[in-house]
Amino acid sequence: MYVAPSILSADFGNLDAEIKAICEAGCDLIHVDVMDGHFVPNLTIGPLVVKAVAKAATKPLDIHLMVQNNTFFVDLFLPLKPKFITFHIEEEKHPLRLIDHIRQNGVSPGIVLNPHTPISSLEYIIKEVDMVLLMSVNPGFGGQKFIPDVVEKIKLLRELIDKKNAKCLIEVDGGVNGLNAPDLEEAGADVLVAGNYIFSSNSYAEAIRAIKLEF
Ligand code: DX5
Ligand code: ZN
C-alpha cells in the first residue's frame, strides 16, 4: 500500500518544513491538489508554489487537477516532472488525446472519477492510464466525510482491470483514515491519499503507518 499525503491540510506558512517532515515520515508520494475555482468551488496553488514543493520533496509528486481547461494546466505542470498528473474525466472531451500528451512528455497519466461517475466510463480508457483515482468525497475541500460507496467501486474497477488485462494503480482520495484503510486495501486499492488524518495527527510517521496497516 502506498500513501500519498495531501498537502492541502499542511501548514502553508511552513510549507518547506512540512514537505520535508512528510517525506521523512515515510510517505511514498506527495499529493498536490490543484483547484481553479471553476471545476470546484475552491482555489489552491499553481506552478510557482508547486515548484517550491518539488524542491523540498524527496518523494515524487502526484498532481491531482480539479480544473476546467485541463490541457492548459497540464502544460503548466509538465515541466516540474511529477510522477503522475491526473485529471477528471467529467471535464475532458478528449481524454485519450490528453493521456497521450502527458505520456509523450515523460509523465504517468491518470484519470479521476467523481463519486457519482460510473466505472463503466473507463471501459475504453483503462488500458491507456497508469492510475485511476476514485474520489471518496466530492472534490473541493480537505477534511470531508468519507463516502462508503467507493468500496464497491474499487471492486468493480479491479474487475475491469482484470477483464481488460490493464496495468494501472487504483488510488482513493477523500476522508481516508486509519479506520477505513483496511477496507480500502481489502477491496483492492493500491494508493491511499490522506490529508486531514495525517496533518492533524501528532505523529506523521504513525499516521502513515496506520494507513499502511503497519503496526
Ligand atoms: C479533495 C482533495 C483531496 C483532499 C483529501 O478535493 O482532492 O486530496 O485534500 O483530504 P482529506 O484526506 O482531508 O479528505
Ligand atoms: Zn486530491
- Bound small molecules, deduplicated: D-xylitol-5-phosphate, zinc ion
Number of strands: 8
Class from helix and strand fractions: alpha/beta
Strand content: 15-25%
CATH domain topology: TIM Barrel
Which sheet architecture does the biggest sheet show? 8 strands, parallel
Question: At the first level of CATH, what is the class?
Answer: Alpha Beta
Compute the number of helices: 8
Question: What is the element string, with H for helices and E for strands?
Answer: EHEHEHEHEEHEHEHH
Strand order of the largest sheet: 1-8-7-6-5-4-3-2
Radius of gyration (CA) equals 16 Å
Mean pLDDT: 98
Protein name: Ribulose-phosphate 3-epimerase
GO cellular component, one term: cytoplasm
Family: Belongs to the ribulose-phosphate 3-epimerase family.
Active site: 33, 173
